[in-house]
Every structure is written in C-alpha cells, then in structure tokens.
Amino acid sequence: MPAAGVGAALGVAVVLFEIRLRQVSLKRLIGAVIGSILGIIGAYLFSLVIKDSIQAGPTQSFLQLFVMLLMAYIGLIVGAGKGELLNLAALGGIFGGEKQSKRSYKILDTSVIIDGRIADIAETGFLDGIIVIPQFVLRELQLVADSADSMKRNRGRRGLDILQRIQKIATLSIQIVEDDFPAVREVDLKLIELAKVYEGKIVTNDFNLNKVAQLQGVEVLNINELANSLKPIVLPGEIMKVFILKEGKEYNQGVAYLDDGTMVVVDNARKMIGKTVDISVTSVLQTTAGKMIFGKFDERGMNSSRPADARPEPRPLDPRPDLPRPDMPRPDVRKSGPTPAAVTEGIKPE
Prior knowledge:
By secondary structure, this protein is α/β, with parallel strands linked by helices. It has 13 helices and ten strands. It has three domains: 24-86; 105-228, 3-Layer(aba) Sandwich (Rossmann fold), CATH 3.40.50; 239-303, CATH 2.40.50. It is 46% helix and 17% strand. The chain is elongated, with a radius of gyration of 43 Å.
C-alpha cells in the first residue's frame, strides 16, 4: 500500500509537470535546461570539496545529493527566468519560427480613470495587452473619493466606478501591481519609473505628464489626442451651419461650438448671437489642446438669399375714389380756373 501510494503521487506529479511544460515557451524551456546543466556542474564541483572535507559515510552521501538537487533547482529557476532574453530567430532553422511573446503593458493614470472615456475605448476592443493599475494610483483615487470637497469626492467615486466597469470586461487582462518608488514623491514621476520597469505605455490625458514622459523616452497614449484625431475634417471654403452662442474676444466676433466640443470663431457674427447661421470656413487651427475652426459670416449673402422676384404687396384700392389721397398732388385753383363744383354751387372763386 505505501508503494502504491507513492507511485500514484509520482504519476500525478508527472501529469501536472507535463501540463505545465506545454504552457512554457521554447525560450524558457531552453533557458531552464541550460540553467539545470550549469547547476549540476556547479554541484559536482561542490561535491569534490565535500568529499575532501568530510569522511566517507552517510553524511557525505546526503550532502552531495542535497547540493546536487539544490543547485539543479536553482539553475532551473534562474535559467527559465532569463530564457526570454534569448534571440532564437538569430539561430535560424527550427528556432526561427518561434513567435515573439512580448507582453504589452498599458499603465493607467489617475486622470484618465476619472475621465471615464477609457472604459468606452476598452469596450470597443481597441485596448490590448495587460492593463496595469498601480497601487499608488488606487491610493490617490481613494484620497480623492474621501475628500471633504463634494466636487473632488464625486470625481473620486466616478474613478472607482470606472475601474469596476473595466474589470467586468472579459476581453481585458487587469493587473494591480504593488511596485512603489519611495524615493519619488509625485505620482506622475512614479508612473514614468513604473513604465520604464515594465517597458509599457502610459495611458493619460494629462498634457504635462505627456511632455515629461516623452522627454524621458516613455511612450504615452493620450486620450485627448485620440479624440482630436477622430473629429471630422473641415476644409477652408466649406459652408457649415452653426449656432452663435456668445461674443468673441475680438471686435465683432461670435463663438459657436460643434457637437464634439470644437470651438468655432466667426467674424462679423456679433449681431447674430442666439441664432443659427451659415458660415464659410476660412482656416482650421490644430493644437495639442484641440482643434479650432475660424469662419466668416456674410450678411450680404443672407440678404441675397431672398428670391429676386419677390415684390412688395400692392396697396389695396381706396373704397372712396372721390376723396383726394395724401399721395396725390392738389390742383392749383388759381392757374386752372374755377372747378366745376364751385361754378355749379355759385361760389365765387378767389
């Protein structure tokens, strides 16, 4: 019975080892084999020292076997961990077809979590790889959610709701890391250091973090830049209909906004505030903060839009034609002589 139990345990261990072996990449497998061989060589050298130091007997045999197993295990673990550094494609042959299994890490910033648009992007499937959420970002979100200011408190709770929404997406792999950098105090700088360690990209909508990360060689995915690139393209000379919302900074300017939030500055539109007008696009300015459209409102074009055959309505006929109308000239009695009515009535003219 004991032998059968030991045999069953060894059989289960072999099956589990085979299942685990199928999941290991070729690089890790080769690294583990090389590490084990180096470990056994090192154990053999140690056994020579033990043989000369300890007398022959059970203790010597036990120490030699223990050192061999220990060194082989250490070599296996170290070699498997460093196996990803091998470049098998350079060897060619059967190793040239080994796929590069480099993981892509996306590190979320506090601002992009509170913004909320990252959840919509993730649901559409445009985010791949592993989504990394640092522990210090979660602490910052918790501090914002516990703030005494109601505005900050709502923003923090919104960020926590967005994280729960992202975790429910089945196609995403979420990983919360405990890595911290005590020597660095600012969260933005910690994100940059974490991105360097994981060789990942920072997902943010913070303009300043974007610039600092690019200066230090860290790739950044800016949500605002993505939103600006998805806005419709407007060319100079196009006619568009906008609603003039308020007065502009310059003289006789009006300001309108498109549905996506793009600002439209319209010349000669100060008098058209609160109205929807057709403008002609003059130029488009693309900045890192967004897109601005400059247009011109032509009041003459609006007046000329009335049909040319439109004429003023005729004045209705006077029901009493015998009475003189104000717009008719009065006759000069001294030059024309007495009127028939005066002669008939016997009135002597002057």
